[in-house]
Design a protein that fits this description.
Structural class: alpha+beta
Largest sheet: 9 strands, mixed
CATH class of the largest domain: Alpha Beta
Number of domains: 3
Shape: elongated
Number of strands: 20
CATH superfamily of the largest domain: Pseudouridine synthase
Radius of gyration: 36 Å
CATH architecture of the largest domain: 2-Layer Sandwich
Length: 520
């Protein structure tokens, strides 16, 4: 048992009891615990309030129990970004606890610091030199003091330290915003914090942010977050409270959000403080570990939507079959329309009601030859039927792409001959990669007449209902030349498959560069 005896001087009068008792050998936190434990007397009377103001002439006695609480030094990875004789700034990796606690009594950052800086053994307690803390799964900048006076000096001015974090959150917060909701312990879950009123035990807290980046679908955003107070889990609780929980946050995010990352996506990015001994402004920054941009890019990854177009007889269906043989799922608008014209379908029923039985076969299915003739003569009828059929096809192709993406396909192909004529260029998200299959008009017409039994007049009419081939070429991402033989078209399918793969890789690289530029 060590006794500390103190006579209160005029200079000390009016200060808190725990403040006048602390010194280089005994931190304020240690003093406070001793007072609350009944180990302090003022003028011989037990005093249990650390915050009481002392008066001139009072005699204060503090009894400190000697404990064997010194840490065992450990060797381990410790990335130091800067140090001088008083302080050190390190880059704490995720999943490393800052100091020992009941759930993690060893293998902590504090023990690694002790292994690198033996002089920290002169400090008492389980967290020698620790000025502030980061949650176990939060990575980034952490400042530690190498002696108790330095720790006390930084602790006193810690509210003036500028602390910026990178946070990957669910949703699309405003470009800039703040939260001033008070924070306090959760009423039923001891490991969580909550947002109680000040009158119910909440402590003031202030968090502000700027949005740096968001995914194309606006589902995830990267924020620069500055905290003006240092409450436990402050960023995590404030953002979750506002509806923007951190990806991977096991405490405060709903399951669908926490499953999107292996840990809470929070990184202590920037640190700025005034050196208490040199009065120099110290500024540090540290890029996030690779799991944060990797997680952001994974959210951005969408299945590649591919559209195949081409004028009648160009060979687009054959090209789509080659892609299907190479492993890509394929949707055919022609097959979908055929099902719409089948017996008992909604479109066949509508045509029967409008036109009677003139456009239907005996079994109730649409007679395509009769329909073509009617549409050729009646532009209003043609417009109505196209509008109805195209609406059904649009819903079906969106459902196809959604299903294939859910199944994990890297790309899926839709053969949509009238993609441009329907005005779908800006309809789908993400925007499809469009390939135009083409060959000279005489060759196309010859194929249509030999394979489908069309005459030249019918081929010309159907051709006139589509964009000219040159216009389609201009609007597409790539043109596939089908003027060669079957083997050449199969080779072109393999080339397109590789092109799609390289395009996905390049998109990923560009997004990684875009993200990296934000914190460099």
């Amino acid at each position: 048992m060590n006794n500390k005896n103190l006579l209160i001087t005029r200079e000390m009068a009016g200060k808190r009891l725990d403040c006048v008792l602390r010194d280089s050998d005994c931190s304020r936190a240690t003093v406070r615990k001793a007072i609350l434990a009944g180990q302090c007397c003022v003028d011989g009377v037990l005093q249990l309030r650390p915050d009481i103001a002392v008066k001139t002439g009072q005699r204060v006695t503090l009894r400190l129990t000697q404990t064997n609480s010194r840490l065992a030094a450990e060797q381990g990875e410790l990335e130091l970004l800067w140090q001088d004789e008083h302080f050190v700034v390190c880059n704490k990796p995720a999943r490393l606890t800052v100091h020992p606690c009941p759930s993690c009594p060893e293998h902590t950052l504090a023990q690694r610091l002790l292994g690198r800086f033996p002089q920290l053994a002169l400090l008492d307690g389980q967290r020698p030199g620790i000025v502030h803390r980061l949650d176990k799964d939060t990575s980034g900048l952490l400042l530690a003091a190498l002696d108790e006076n330095a720790r006390l000096a930084m602790s006193e001015g810690w509210r003036n330290v500028k602390k910026d974090y990178l946070a990957l959150v669910s949703g699309l917060p405003p470009v800039a915003g703040q939260c001033r909701e008070p924070l306090g312990r959760h009423p039923t879950v001891k490991t969580k914090m909550s947002v109680p009123a000040l009158s119910c035990g909440g402590k003031s807290a202030h968090t502000e942010w700027t949005r740096l980046w968001t995914t194309p679908d606006k589902s995830v955003s990267l924020l620069c977050v500055r905290i003006h107070t240092g409450r436990t889990h402050q960023i995590r609780v404030h953002l979750a409270h506002l509806g923007y929980p951190l990806l991977g946050d096991k405490l405060y995010a709903p399951k669908i959000v926490r499953d999107r990352a292996p840990r809470q996506m929070l990184h202590a990015w920037k640190l700025e403080f005034t050196h208490p001994y040199t009065n120099e402004t110290m500024r540090f920054s540290c890029p996030p570990p690779c799991d944060m941009p990797t997680c952001a890019l994974a959210v951005c990854e969408r299945m590649q939507r591919v559209v195949i177009v081409g004028n009648p007889g160009s060979g687009k269906s054959t090209f789509a079959r080659h892609l299907e043989a190479l492993g890509l799922p394929v949707f055919s608008a022609d097959k979908e329309v055929a099902s719409l014209y089948a017996r008992g379908s909604e479109v066949a029923g509508w045509i029967g009601q409008r036109m009677g039985g003139a456009l239907l076969d005996a079994d109730g299915a649409v007679n395509k030859n009769a329909l073509f003739a009617a549409m050729r003569e009646d532009s209003v009828l043609r417009k109505d039927i196209e509008t109805m059929a195209h609406a059904f096809v649009r819903v079906a192709v969106e459902a196809f792409w959604t299903q294939q993406e859910a199944l994990g396909a890297p790309a899926a192909v839709a053969e949509l001959p009238l993609y441009f004529e329907c005005g779908w260029q800006n309809l789908f998200t993400p925007a499809p990669f469009v390939a135009n299959v083409c060959c000279p008009r005489p060759a196309r017409f010859e194929r249509l007449m030999s394979a489908r039994g069309w005459n030249e007049e019918k081929a010309a009419v159907l051709e006139s209902w589509q964009w000219p081939e040159d216009r389609k070429k201009t609007a597409c991402d790539v043109t596939v030349d089908n003027s060669g033989g079957a083997e050449a078209l199969e080779t072109a399918a393999r080339v397109l498959l590789e092109t799609l793969k390289q395009r996905r890789l390049e998109t990923g690289k560009n997004r990684m560069r875009e993200l990296a530029a934000l914190w460099q």
